[in-house]
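Can't attach files on this board, so I'm pasting raw text. These are the components:
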Amino acid sequence: MTFEERARELVAKMTFAEKMAQLKYDAPAIERLGVPAYNWWNEALHGAARNGTATVFPQAIAMAASFNPELMEKVAVAISDEVRAKYNAVRKTGETQIYEGLTCWSPNINIFRDPRWGRGHETYGEDTYLTAVMGTAFIKGLQGDGKYRKTDATLKHYAVHSGPEGVRHGFNVDVSEKDLYETYLWAFKYCIDNAKPSAVMGAYNAVNGEPCCASKTLLEDILRGEFGFDGYVVSDCGAICDINNHHKVTENEAESAALAVNNGCDLNCGTAYQWLKTAAALNLIDEDTVTKSVERLFTARFRLGMFDEDCEYDNIPYDVIECDKHRALNRQMAQEGIVLLKNNGILPLDKSKKIAVIGPNADSVKVLLGNYNGVPSIYNTLLRGIIEESEARVNYAMGCDLCVADKALGDKSREAVACAENSDVVIMCMGLDPSYEGEEGDAYNAEMSGDKPDIELPDLQRKLIEKIVALGKPIIFVNVTGSCINLAYEDKNCDAVIQCFYPGAEGGTALADVIFGKVSPSGRLPVTFYKSTEDLPPFEDYSMKNRTYKFFKGEPLYPFGFGLTYTDIKENWIDENTAIITNTGNYDTNYSVLKYEYIPHKSLCGIKKIFIEKGQTIKVTF
Amino acid sequence: MTFEERARELVAKMTFAEKMAQLKYDAPAIERLGVPAYNWWNEALHGAARNGTATVFPQAIAMAASFNPELMEKVAVAISDEVRAKYNAVRKTGETQIYEGLTCWSPNINIFRDPRWGRGHETYGEDTYLTAVMGTAFIKGLQGDGKYRKTDATLKHYAVHSGPEGVRHGFNVDVSEKDLYETYLWAFKYCIDNAKPSAVMGAYNAVNGEPCCASKTLLEDILRGEFGFDGYVVSDCGAICDINNHHKVTENEAESAALAVNNGCDLNCGTAYQWLKTAAALNLIDEDTVTKSVERLFTARFRLGMFDEDCEYDNIPYDVIECDKHRALNRQMAQEGIVLLKNNGILPLDKSKKIAVIGPNADSVKVLLGNYNGVPSIYNTLLRGIIEESEARVNYAMGCDLCVADKALGDKSREAVACAENSDVVIMCMGLDPSYEGEEGDAYNAEMSGDKPDIELPDLQRKLIEKIVALGKPIIFVNVTGSCINLAYEDKNCDAVIQCFYPGAEGGTALADVIFGKVSPSGRLPVTFYKSTEDLPPFEDYSMKNRTYKFFKGEPLYPFGFGLTYTDIKENWIDENTAIITNTGNYDTNYSVLKYEYIPHKSLCGIKKIFIEKGQTIKVTF
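---
Top answer:
Structure tokens for the assembled complex are below.
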């Protein structure tokens, strides 16, 4: 029997009430049918998340910066091993609680169209192709290719979702058909075609008037119709209640729940589906519709091997969690996600130099972890990574707070100046953290609800930077953010500029590997770095006009795809699908060869990441 | 000219208004006299504090547990080197801001009479002699023995000060003369006699009706009269305003300020002394009295070399801050401050055992730092120390929150059980942290204002412990607190019990050194570990009756001075001042030989810490 057949047979034994209850994310046990309680909510954005110890890989945006889909798939394999190991360990308790399950609500493949969006760092950046191939690699790694699915991947947030966070629960996006298909849906279709994700999560917002989690157009016509998606759809958390509370499209929760189920939203994160009984009593839904949704959900559970004894993943041991192999893989991904933006020759840095490490992000654990994260049992902050690799003394000063000055301890910049004066070279670790740019309700940037007001570093950081620049010491500037920041001043006044996204538990080690030249940097920007907030269209405007490298008419500070190495690479394209790559410099390096189309506009359409030794020539074919 | 003469000459050139302004802790510059602005407030309880990077030694109570005054003096030398290095680095800016100066408001030599006091971990415990010899060693290390003073030490809080935190600003202690001299003042007198501290800080509370910071009895009669103290007195921060606001002994700030200065409180932390001008206008103080205080303060500044070019400490370089030597010293102090309370033979632990490390304090940085702390640029949590020393796999789970359950992430104990089930042995790192037991305004234990309501671990920790005990795995229980906790259950149900006070930046390394047997433990309890809160007299009661090992009539779980090693030590006292110590076991160890008097009651009166090899015999003479 197929998984579908087994699901149909099991669901046929359920009462209507039992079926409705199974559409809630915290699905109850049905003991008489041997169905254990199962909580569908789990997260795995860049590691097994919110369930204690795990290998915390770099945040999604940092992994995108690696421009290395093969490495991404290896990372996702490691993640799903850890999710499985955790599931296997608790399964014998007879239930699976929140964040313990096999159904991962990752990846986030929204297009990072505006740098102000607080959740942009959960995405793979601004480009549809990069997003699509990274998403595909991630899904394949998560789901495996066995008889059973290893874990389920969930594409989110479907669709046209990228802020503002503060109004997301009632926001309507009017989007043109061109932008919809060319930009906002493109990666969803690509991933469905190439990786068969088990699930899709609906977004909070409405598109052209229809709330996404109950949109006939988006779910029935496009997703299941045009795209041929055959998995299950889950709502974002609380999104169904938003339909009546914020979108005002329905009158009450029963109507919202019915509208969602009738349009194909099978599973509810939140509380709305407890009103399904009321909806049924009011004849707003019929049992056949509910049955179809429950069958989809149980097909998934059968396909995950939850009701079998021969699942090939049941014996993944607890010891894979944060094992040495995963830690090594994490370090590699962190290295490849670091982007070198400027270098006057100071890098790689001589290990005998006395270093001042300055900045609020230098010893921050938060910036390692990003959001939607697990907990590493061992981690290396940027500062610790530098201290452990340096062969000389390292002086550390926080220098200033991240964005709001805590004056209780006096003027922190005085220590920073002393540190710099007593050192040969300064490494500044500035930027933001995931409590400043993040999700609504998560970040303390209250006015913007997790979004950034602009693309500037906070004032108190700017003042510290100017004070240190004034000392005349060589400066390596490390910008630690999940998004574009205006780095024009740093580009002009510092000797080197490094973009370090939220780099994971091994972030400090990886940064030190790059700074001291153990590896040549090979990351590239997955987003455009603009020079000014003035360059951006209004944040609420979802038109792609004048946005991202494809449509921006101005001159960026650092373009999408930009990233230096420690060597010189010559690309010689002998035809549109073949490039001869030569390393004419003095370092071995990883290098992503990027293929672009130019009609109707410049557009990435191919990525091959290679390792090339100094003096070597490699022919790359797409 | 002596420092006193130079001070007198300089102060003679000041106007009355200038003199009054110099009694504020943030003393302004007097440019025409070449006097730079100087902020008197600095802290150095267990490292240069609140001024950025420093070697963060174990909290005071942990250093007391070392029962090693010689090592304490070395630590204090290191601390004063770092304070000086920081001062030297900023001095050229022409002013010395808060926490940058040479006048350290440490040590805290209050008697930790009741385990509920939140600030008890800032002290050297419950015994007067241990407090006195540790305080003396600390002062000597801080002040040096050169031509100039290296830094100033300040004895605090004078006097009879140990909670409750919530009412400290208006609390009056009625104390008998016996308890006052025998317990509460004893260490003050000893330190003054043996180490000549530069300063004394008055307490918030009143004693027998007189607010301490303006007490004729305490300051004039006893401190300067009987004890012959010739330094300066500083108020606790805001304590002078308390005299009218909370003690209600005066009507307003001008009266409070006058009362304090007239009774010998030279320097004011807070704002009260800005009313000295008003007090002078009202004839509540005269210029001669103010002059005397200013002379004391400038004597101190001259003695610190602030107005000279030949001070032997002016060239202490920035590089001493957190230098390798200090880190090694820190590790040693952390090792010696760990107390082994029970061991059924499981310790030292075989490095090849697979370990589950469980508990909210396992990866806590807060517990390393204590309060009144600096910032380490590199530190090892208990978890990290264990991971780095273990030769097998370590599984980590937080297991529960410290005291208030955050249910957003589900039931954390499930992961802890999985960890334990997948390991050979469990190390539980439980206890409190300095945000739970601490100073008024500092700790979140709101009801008690930083004090503990009882001596029990929080309920959610107890539940986790019972759950893990039920698994039947061997358990090494590490209690991380700054105070006594009822460990009767753990003593009964765990294979080993370790008391780890807040152990400083190298705490995890030191704990691993002890657990895996790199060193034998040698710490001893500086406080009695009671079995029940019922054993304690009312917290507000300052009578020593039935308190501490000297007067407690019940049976403690672990007595004051208790602490196991990995070897067997025989003490043979051949006369009251001579002991023959023999190591008959299989480990080399440090060992504190304690001498007690028994009349009129058991009372510690001698400490000699020795290193004794296995098989060795050492004669110790007091």
